[in-house]
Amino acid sequence: SVETLTNLARAQVLIGAQDFAIKHLRKALQLRPNFLDAHIELAWAFRLAGKYDDSLDCFAKALELSPGNSRVLTGKAKILEVLGRYKEAYEILQPFIKEEASEALPVYYDLSHHFGERDEAASLINKLLDKDDINAQGTAPLHFRLGNYYDKAGDYDTAFRHFREANALTNRRFSIEEAKRLFKEIATRYNRE
Question: Is residue 67 packed enough to be buried (19+ CB in 10 Å), middle (13-18) or exposed (0-12)?
């Protein structure tokens, strides 16, 4: 199924097998050309493979399917930031920054030094993290950015606290054996389609 191919590709990206992920996502899109998640995952696989133009093409298709989608626009902004197209990325993020959307704030932080807004970006992240209703699992990228911010400011205790929190949330103990096991489990559970 399309969902199975997309999930398999996600697992392949985790183990650094972007070429296989790209192959499976293309197959998924042959089966269902308008499957938004496959376009988004393909965009990220292309990004990790260093194929930024292909990544932007996938985000463009995803935007056709879901105009205004914050996840898609934030992903596109990240690619533009990587390409050095800071102004374009910044303009895309503006509505989400004003809404303090958590998925946009890490990219905004990465862009902020180009616009003299690093303190503002850190302030918005701190404000978001202080909310009671935030999903803690999704905050690791925010903690990593604040760790960087406070480290550069010389506030090493606060930086360490944020880096420790980010690492605890991401469970950064990567095991190639566990990734291979997951991949094998997915491959044996689903038949080849």
Answer: exposed
* pTM, 2 dp: 0.80
16 φ/ψ sector (left φ>0, alpha ψ -120 to 50, else beta): left
Could you list the mean pLDDT of each consecutive 10-residue stretch along the chain, which spans 193 residues?
89 87 94 95 94 96 94 95 96 89 90 95 92 80 94 95 88 65 71 53
Q: DSSP string covering 51-109, please?
A: -HHHHHHHHHHHHHHSTT-HHHHHHHHHHHHHTT-HHHHHHHHHHHHHTT-TTTHHHHH
Looking up tokens 């990544």 gives 55
How far does CA 3 lie from the centroid of its chain? 19
CA distances from 142 to 68, 127, 130, 138, 149 (A): 23, 11, 12, 8, 11
Task: Note whether 117 and 98 are within 8 A (CB).
Answer: no
Residues 6+ apart with CB under 8 A from 22: 9, 42, 45, 46, 49
Q: Quick count: other Cβ atoms within 10 Å of Cβ 187? A: 13
Q: Among all chains, which residue has been given the structure tokens 């199975």? A: 4
